[in-house]
Amino acid sequence: MKIKIKQISDKSDRVPPIVAYFASGYDPFAKNPESRVIETPKVTVYRHKDESKKRLQVVVSPPDSNVEFVGSNYTGEQTARQTCVYKLGVLNKETRTLKILPIAHNKIVRLEPRVIKETVDLEASEGSDTESSGNEDISELTEEERLKRKATKKLTKRFCTEQVINRNKKKRGLNLGYDPLTKELLKGKLNKVNVKASALKSNSIVARNIPPYDTSATTPSEAYPIQKIIEKGEWLFLQDIYLLLQQETEAVTDNYPLFVSNRLYKLRAIKDETEKADGLWCLITPNTYG
């Protein structure tokens, strides 16, 4: 068969063909098992008002169903990089002509099943009503307050955006008020928790990052006793600065920070050897490695 090929270019005043497929396997040409008739679904195409945006959305609504199939050319797999050009070929056997047409925005739309928005809103409103009735006692409200609340919900659904409605639902969820069921549930869970009294008692005595101290002390040395802060086994490892003091001016202090070498003269000025041995030098040694 000889075929004449005719290529049609894209025209701004006409909408090119839209190519889409059902990812769920839905067959729009399937017969109704009861009526034995092919029920054609309703197809709606939405385009952006601004033609420069080139946004397109396709909605296929099967008859007598609360599920519709939605797809667009700017979400999902359409956002991936595309390195090819799609064309649509239509063959007319009578005229033996093959027409090659460009498709809309060079995108193949994937149709995903979605529950119709009206059904979702109705179920959400019923759920919010039951939720609010469970968390607050509506019987305590007056008839005027009940009517006012009902009218506010209707106006919110009618005029507010979906973002505002979801934000209001979150606010209501955060401010649930008194909930006796939740209180009893938490009380039962807390009663099942095993508490170790000995561990709580030991933790209450020893606080983290607080050295031993004496609140009744009258001198600085008694307020924070060094003998309790530094363990007995650590005293021998903290004698390097004390040995440095014994060498007087011949000691080499290059291996120590400036704040250590600048304070050696103060430690040498102490005449009481007992006070030196009690550990003033032990306070400077740990700071060297801090």
UniProtKB/TrEMBL annotation:
Alphabetical list of Pfam families matching this protein: RNA_pol_I_A49 (PF06870)
GO biological process: DNA-templated transcription
Location within or outside the cell: Nucleus, Nucleolus
Gene Ontology CC annotation, any one: DNA-directed RNA polymerase complex
GO MF terms, alphabetically ordered: DNA binding
Keyword Nucleus: yes
UniProt keyword Zinc, yes or no: no
This protein's UniProt keywords: DNA-directed RNA polymerase, Nucleus, Transcription
Region of interest: Disordered: 121-145
Family: Belongs to the eukaryotic RPA49/POLR1E RNA polymerase subunit family.
Protein name, UniProt field: Uncharacterized protein
